[in-house]
Amino acid sequence: MGQGSRFGVELRRLRRQAGLSLSELAERVYYSKGFLSKVETGAASPSPALAALCEAELGATGLLTELLPEATTRRRTHSHLRIFGLPALSAHFVGRVSEQRATKAALQADGGVCVVSGMGGVGKTEFAVRCAHQLESLFADGCLFVDLHGRTPDRAPAEPSQVLDRLLRMLGVAGEEIPADIDDRAALYRSRLRGRSMLVVLDNAASAAQVRPLLPAEPKCRVLVTSRNRLPSLDSATHVALTPLSDEEAMRLFTAIADVDADEDAVRSIVRRCGHLPLAVRVAAARLRTHATWDLAEMSRRLADETDRLAQLDDGERSVTTTLDVSVRDLGAAESRMLGLLALHPGADLDVHAAAALARMASREADHLVERLHDASLLNQPAKGRYALHDLVRAFAGRTLLAALSAEQKSAALRRLLDAMLATAALADRLLIPGRFQPEWARHLKPPEPLRFTDRAQALAWFRVEWPNLVELCRAAQRTQEHEHCWHLAFVMRGFFFEEKLWDPWISVHRCARVAAAELGDQWALAGTTSNLGVALADRGDLVGAAECYREALALYQQMGDQDGEVTVRANHGWVEHYRGHHAAAVQNLSVALEHYERTGNARNAAITRRGIALARSALRQFPEATEAAERALAEADELGLDADAVRALNCLGWVRFEAGDHVQAADAYQRAADRAGSGAMSFEQARAYTGLGNVAATGGRSAEAVALWRRADESHCGLNPTMVAEARARSQLCTTASGPAGAAEGLSG
């Protein structure tokens, strides 16, 4: 058997052992399936590049290289025929399939230049080397590789003149023939590349200015650049950005390097604490592998402390801290200050307005700074107009850049952010549910000028993006003893949470707010927050918890002599009594509240209360009175221009008529509710309406129509709770499939 055949047999054995088809291996090493098939059968000769790529993919370092045909090996030793200056491939590499495809496509175009960018430690050099190995067979004259030291610790970036000297020597130019002037060197470099087909890899570039003199003029040459900066001024280049690995990819990398059995939960915990950053994952895996007494639990424990995490991600030669320190060393004072202040933001992402509030500057100026940080790969951009700090960058910035600010400066920055977000949320709350009570402090808050939206759709869109950040800000306010900001934020978020049925965050922030109000000794704040927590619990279906909150809030309002608060709590408790089956008590409490609201001119709460009375009287089989209450609630909502309340009133009217046996009128009310709810804007009420229409169809014997309508309801909002939503209760009685566990109440007073 010839040496080429031995190579092919071993390649086939390793491929099958790895569970890969020829097509899968071909996709990974960028050789055609047909060529690989010929190599395996001995009909085609393998190359050193193919051997190196296959060894890396199959975890078989050295096993294929030693089986290369002697003629191939000898040909590679003649450097005058072909230059091969690429570093060796790493044995461990995962993911990056789409990025490899984009890079390959860019480097197959005439004169193609590809810039691979990403934060420090994301694996740009390893990625570029792998791509170069995959593509080197396409370049008749070989590959050049130069480290430009743009971000190398304790070393200045290489001067283009010095790099040209090195490249010319690699191209066979004698030292005495290299001119002194940089322009002459660049001209000679371009001349030496004319007519040649080469791949030039410029690793670790500091700037576009460093790269430009090194670009060939020969269209058969291609250039692959890596940089922490995005180098946008290389506008003819293709730009490929590397991001941290996915959960699965980071876990594969860790287990391969650490050489441990995959304990999925433990490994996932470790790689998440590494922020999925390849450098951090490699360091953690290497440290685990070299400590015989450590196990996965010990490694995870060492990374658990955020204040010590960066220190743990240092194996003596590689350090995440050093890598990030190099990334920020060239930042200007304004950019450094901004990066430090952004570490104060407790949320997952932010916009320019939040950055401007933190830094106390105009949005336009803040935009310039965050864009420069983004270009330096110190900020990610997960969506248009949104910026995010990687967890390890946040930790580094907090430990270094933020530490340069005084406690007073940091507190002032957080207060500015809280002020801006609270003011914007208060405005959004007013637009989201017009006519709902807001205290004096909320009505007069003015958000930053660019954020002053004007309609409900804009307010809803803003809330949907920012609510996770508002939740984290509420918690941060409690931690930093900004207690007033804490309960204020909870107060202005309650309407959005009710509309979107986000029960967990609604309950969480109100529990924080209760602690804050108690710390302030503000009885009104404590009563209102406790009452609103009761509404959240009732809306989710925790009627016992809601009733307890209402008892506490009622006692506080009575102590203060606050009749408005007392009545609102009684009204809310009336809804809970209805859901618990105490319909007569519900009518009594709601009727007392209705009389108060009519006397004081609180038209919106009056309309809400009529809906509750309609549902309770319907349960008591008092259908004329229930119908009158529902119709008046609808008329009042329409008169006030409250579309959301009008849709709820229509669903209420539909249920009353359905229970009364007037299915034609019930279907009419439900259809009007479904149409007015619209797609996405009021998905919960739309689901109620379609559920009601399905109930009407099922009662009329039209089972196929009923199933279709119920399916449409589930598509709008899956899982209405039969305890809280009468239509869902009727559906569960009309079909054999029980509805899901989630649900919500129909009313919200206040």
UniProtKB/TrEMBL annotation:
TM stretches of this protein: none
The organism's place on the tree of life at top rank: Bacteria
UniProt domain HTH cro/C1-type: residue ranges: 11-64
InterPro entries attached to this UniProt entry: Apaf_helical, Cro/C1-type_HTH, Lambda_DNA-bd_dom_sf, NB-ARC, P-loop_NTPase, TPR-like_helical_dom_sf, TPR_rpt
Pfam families reported for this sequence: HTH_31 (PF13560), NB-ARC (PF00931), TPR_12 (PF13424)
SMART domains: HTH_XRE, TPR
Name of this protein: HTH cro/C1-type domain-containing protein
Organism whose genome encodes this protein: Saccharopolyspora thermophila
